[in-house]
Amino acid sequence: MVTNVQALIHSYADWIGEQISVRTIGEYQEITTPFLDRHNDCIQIYLKELAENDYLLTDGGNTITDLKACGCPIDTDKRLDLLHETLHGFGILLEEENELTVHASPGNFPQRKHNLIQAILAVNDLAYTSKQNIGQLFTEDVKQWLKNLNVRYIEKTAIFGKSGIGHAFDIVIAASPDGKYPERIIQPYNNLNLLQAQALAFKWNDIKETRNISIYVVTKPGRALSKNVREICETYGMNPVSFDNLDSIAQQITA
User: Fold this and answer.
1) Domain 131-254: which CATH number of 3.10.450.50, 3.30.450.20, 3.40.50.2020, 3.40.1350.10
2) At what angle do helices 77-90 and 131-148 cross, to 10 degrees?
């Protein structure tokens, strides 16, 4: 039985070797592997000899570039933390031009090559983070938009309503100094459903009579609100805006 298992393992290793192809591109050797990314494309890595017994292995920047192209940019603190945590576990470095790299010698080349492939697969998985993380990442995108506009805000603030209950909101901006614009709440939603809209309407209705304040409900691009959710927003005076249209409210937010 053990002999048969070993034979199967060797046949698998042989199969992997047979599926790998190599071609020369300038100073690099392009290595096409049988491992597939989330698009079902073969993962390709590149090898460059730097000196005797010193090789550079890189993904050429393709992994992170693809994430950005698919709407998952690695440009917020939360995403960068997830990325560095992922790469650290495989001993892979993030270099300029978003390249994932590792150095190898003839003695450790198989392990380093395997680590780079595993890191590429793991970074690909950042596109499939849990629902909770997706929501957190979207909130980070909204915060980054505010930072780009140099807007100061407070995070996770409790505002007390007429019921005496404190309601937590993700982002609160102080009133403008000239009094033209009141306090502003920005509440991001990865996918605003009916129950969430009803809960938000209760919180908003409870606080809006106690202070001069407005609210903007920010949704992800391409996530159209249902008819019922939009009616709730309109009925209670909550302003829905898609992330890709945030610039349309920049004046109200930056004042």
Assistant:
1) 3.40.1350.10
2) 120
